[in-house]
Amino acid sequence: MKENVEYIKVFADYESDDMPVVYLYEVDLEDERLALRAIEIFADRKVKCIEDFYRDVIEILSIPSVAELNSGEWGGGFFALAIREEEFEEIWNSDSYMGRLSAE
């Protein structure tokens, strides 16, 4: 297990087929909670792995903690939980996702 790294899964409300419904983040706890890698999962269970999460962004933002995400201070429509590194890696190395697509 990597030290000083947190793994987060975020379930988002369905908006459209081209928007992810589940996000997974590998968060560097020693570098301002920046994402090391991210995964987007779509309603059709396809997986998109992102190695350079900040490549096309104008402003780099830290990934909020599970508690912050669930408090509503970042908006509604999603639910976050901590996951194990093994779950992140299994999905990272897969073309499809067989887990839950919603928090319910």
UniProtKB/TrEMBL annotation:
This is DUF6881 domain-containing protein. It comes from Eisenbergiella massiliensis. It holds the Pfam family DUF6881. Residues 6-94 form the DUF6881 domain.
